[in-house]
Specification:
With 254 residues, the protein is α/β, with parallel strands linked by helices. It has seven helices and seven strands. The protein has a domain of 165 residues: NAD(P)-binding Rossmann-like Domain (Rossmann fold, 3-Layer(aba) Sandwich), CATH 3.40.50.720. Helix 1 links the parallel strand 1 and strand 2. The relative contact order is 0.12. Bound molecules: nicotinamide-adenine-dinucleotide. The site of nicotinamide-adenine-dinucleotide (NAD) has 29 residues, from helix 1, helix 4, strand 5 and strand 6.
């Protein structure tokens, strides 16, 4: 089976590609706007292009007829999305529309889509269940919500699975596996620890009973299936604005 991974040179994409190639043929399609070619094994075919370019997608599907697509390509920095909402809409929504259209043309049905917990916005309650109202509070979250609607409206020809990821962390064991996005929590924490800008934590105690800040995923209603949320954190208090380094150093409190 051949899988096309859009955004495969990104942080999550590199992990997916390295695991997937153990059992399948993998082709990466990425414009390298945030990705790095050196994250990828040399023997994995790489095509540089943008999901906003429908012709490039058609050529890709012609050259590497896939069994399915893992669509990770997106702009993901929420603060940027406030300043550049049109760019986020074009890449995250139109880009997905192009991928779905190219799949339809090539007769490909399987799609795995990386959505985000940002579709929920500030829910005001915890835990947030899969069927919680979708009320994104920034353009990034809104593009993910609209992308999910595209998948919902694609009809029976598409067999899609959507993951609503939330603050994915971890770096395997390889140098290529690190997240380089300076606005994400772990990179920001390590930059602060190695002399970079101070880590700003907004708020002090949110009182959530199980505080799951890391690696939580759930499936959208499009999947018609549920999975349990996978949290790598311990129950208890969240770190306060001044307690980060103590919290990070304490054994068993991740
Ligand atoms: N990292 C997280 O915590 C997190 C949380 C929720 C959702 N997500 C979603 O998961 C996916 C992957 O996230 P990531 O953390 O690996 O991000 P990333 O920025 O490291 O990877 C995204 C990849 O997409 C590529 N890309 C961007 N625009 C493109 C375009 N127009 N055409 C082709 N490629 C393009 C980038 O070059 C990059 O390689 C994204 O869709 C993101 O929205 C990530």
């Amino acid at each position: 089976m051949t899988w096309i991974v859009t955004g495969g040179a990104g942080y999550i994409g590199a992990h997916v590609v390295h695991l997937l190639r153990e059992r399948h043929e993998v082709v990466v399609f990425d414009d390298l706007s945030a990705g790095r070619r050196e994250r990828l094994p040399e023997d994995v075919p790489f095509v540089r292009g943008s999901v906003t370019d429908r012709d490039a997608l058609d050529r890709l599907f012609e050259r590497y007829p896939p069994s399915g697509v893992i669509h990770l390509a997106a702009r993901k920095v929420t603060s940027d999305s406030v300043h550049q909402p049109e760019l986020y809409a074009v890449v995250n929504v139109t880009g997905l529309e192009n991928v779905v259209a190219a799949m339809r043309q090539a007769g490909v049905q399987r799609l795995l889509f990386a959505s985000s917990a940002a579709v929920y916005g500030d829910s005001g309650s915890a835990p947030v269940h899969e069927d919680h109202p979708l009320l994104p509070v920034n353009p990034y979250g809104d593009t993910k919500r609209r992308a999910e609607e595209v998948i919902d409206g694609a009809g029976a020809g598409l067999r899609a699975l959507t993951f609503r990821q939330f603050n994915v962390v971890g770096a395997g064991t390889h140098p290529w596996a690190v997240d380089l996005t300076s606005t994400c929590l772990l990179p920001a924490a390590f930059q602060a620890l190695t002399g970079g800008p101070e880590l700003v934590v907004r708020g002090r105690y949110f009182g959530t009973p199980t505080a799951p800040p890391c690696a939580t995923t759930c499936m959208s209603p499009t999947s018609r299936r549920r999975t349990s949320a996978g949290s790598t954190s311990s129950p208890g208090r969240r770190p306060t604005g001044t307690g980060w380094s103590t919290w990070a150093a304490a054994p068993g409190r991740r």
